[in-house]
TrEMBL record:
Chief place where the protein resides: cytoplasm
All residue ranges annotated as the RecX third three-helical domain in the record: 119-164
Subcellular locations according to the entry: Cytoplasm
Taxonomy, superkingdom: Bacteria
Domain RecX second three-helical: from-to ranges: 74-112
Keywords for the protein's UniProt record, in alphabetical order: Cytoplasm
Domain spans labelled RecX first three-helical: 28-64
InterPro entries: RecX_HTH_1st (IPR053926), RecX_HTH_2nd (IPR053924), RecX_HTH_3rd (IPR053925), Regulatory_RecX (IPR003783), WH-like_DNA-bd_sf (IPR036388)
Origin species: Enterocloster hominis
Region Disordered, annotated ranges: 1-26
Name by which UniProt lists this protein: Regulatory protein RecX
Amino acid sequence: MKEWKLEGVSGLEGPSLQSGNAGDEKEARNKAVYYLQFSSKTEWELRKKLAEQGFLPASVDSAIRFVKAHRYLDDGEYAARYIERNQRKKSRKQMVFELRQKGIDEETLNAAFEENPVDEEEQILRLLEKKGYRGEEAEREEKQKISAYLARKGFAYEAIQRAMINYARKNRD
């Protein structure tokens, strides 16, 4: 396997090992394009995948520049599509957590959420209906149980309470 850190190892400090070579860079580019044809990835995920394959940092950087230049890799676009795909079933908090785990930075996240606003109250109302919540007729235990379920999904307590009240009013009318 190719080493990432070569400094300090006698005899291996040569420029060809430090900066990679043209063959290694081309192989890294091909590997990056190959990975991206099966599923979208963030820059962090692709860097990790290429590093796991043993490519030198210079080759990984070259491959990332290549796929970005050809618009095969765009973290902003990835985040926007992810939010669009999951906005009906996941809370904003849950999506932020998952996108951060994929290496998306705060600025990119904020731009993606501005582009695709998430209506958490509508999501909660849909989940209440799906769970068969009975509104004002619900026992205290049922209310606690459904609140805990929604909190585990990443919804804020205030949003849950507001949605439960609105749901009860809507069903009463």
